[in-house]
Structure to design on (339 residues):
């Protein structure tokens, strides 16, 4: 990624993208222009509104689906809550044990029956009968990549909805969202966008099943600029599930997604996993196939911090996450702090 390295200049070795991504210089410039225009009173809401459409289109390109099937909201959990609300109260949903709260809580709050099973048994549990299966494509704590193909095959055989959370996957793991019924995510990690943008691929059949979003506002209407319409006419496609547009986050997303799409997710995947596996090898481990590595080494978080390496502790283990702005030198610095 030498051709992109000029876009970042951090004061730390940032191995913490699984918590939040570092903004590229181009994204920072786009945000500065937005803020300057707000401060000067020269901003153009119509122009800002166009960033919403462009962010949607680029998210669709990243996920391999039409932009018209992508809804934009504030957070992955908020969008999952809308999906959960469309399920009957008697529905049964299967999730992996130890699943992230943003995946689990929306279904529990809906009051449906939620069953948890080990990740390795997820496909088997779907086959035993349920209305939906929900899981993180990449686990935010361990970095484990879910057996998506097996789960999807089991769900198709059982007639269950496949609901995935791509928050820790989209941006480095090649994805085809069309294999899911629902695929949600938050953009402030691997997509390197300020917090406040959630997205959801909603398969056309799911859009019909869900009807319209409760509490719909102008953003969900067929004509979003008719602010005094006396009748709600929903937008075509997934946009009818949009919440009020976050111009700041959409402006940033357009710029950051340009970097990711320009680099190519396959290339980002090879870079990130290559760095993670280099780190694992330095610790005497085999390849992991993930951009996230979880280590249980006494004092690891503190030892890494002393070396200027930023990480996070999750479930008692130190989590390192590698993205396109990291280098082999970063990996070696982290490994030397632990070996």
């Amino acid at each position: 990624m030498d051709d992109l390295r000029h876009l970042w200049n951090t004061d730390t070795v940032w191995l913490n993208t699984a918590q939040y991504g570092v903004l590229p210089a181009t994204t920072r410039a786009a945000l500065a222009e937005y803020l300057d225009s707000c401060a000067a009173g020269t901003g153009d809401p119509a122009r800002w509104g166009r960033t919403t459409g462009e962010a949607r289109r680029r998210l669709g390109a990243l996920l391999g689906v039409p932009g018209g099937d992508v809804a934009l909201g504030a957070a992955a959990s908020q969008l999952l809550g809308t999906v959960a609300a469309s399920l009957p109260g008697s529905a049964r949903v299967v999730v992996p044990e130890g699943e992230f709260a943003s995946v689990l809580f929306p279904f529990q709050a809906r009051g449906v029956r939620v069953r948890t099973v080990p990740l390795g048994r997820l496909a088997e549990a779907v086959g035993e009968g349920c209305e939906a299966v929900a899981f993180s494509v990449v686990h935010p704590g361990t970095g484990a990549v879910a057996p998506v193909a097996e789960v999807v095959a089991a769900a198709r055989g059982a007639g269950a909805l496949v609901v995935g959370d791509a928050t820790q996957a989209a941006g480095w793991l090649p994805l085809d969202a069309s294999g899911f019924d629902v695929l949600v995510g938050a953009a402030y990690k691997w997509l390197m966008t300020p917090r406040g943008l959630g997205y959801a691929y909603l398969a056309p059949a799911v859009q019909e099943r869900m009807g319209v979003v409760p509490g719909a506002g102008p953003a969900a209407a067929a004509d979003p600029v008719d602010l005094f319409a006396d009748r709600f006419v929903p937008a075509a496609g997934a946009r009818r599930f949009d919440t009020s547009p976050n111009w700041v986050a959409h402006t940033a997303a357009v710029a950051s997604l340009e970097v990711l799409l320009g680099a190519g997710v396959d290339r980002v995947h090879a870079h990130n996993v290559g760095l993670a596996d280099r780190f694992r090898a330095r610790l005497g481990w085999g390849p992991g196939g993930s951009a996230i590595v979880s280590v249980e080494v006494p004092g690891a978080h503190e030892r890494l911090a002393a070396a200027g390496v930023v990480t996070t502790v999750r479930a008692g283990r130190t989590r390192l996450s590698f993205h396109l702005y990291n280098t082999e030198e970063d990996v070696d610095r982290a490994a030397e702090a632990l070996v």
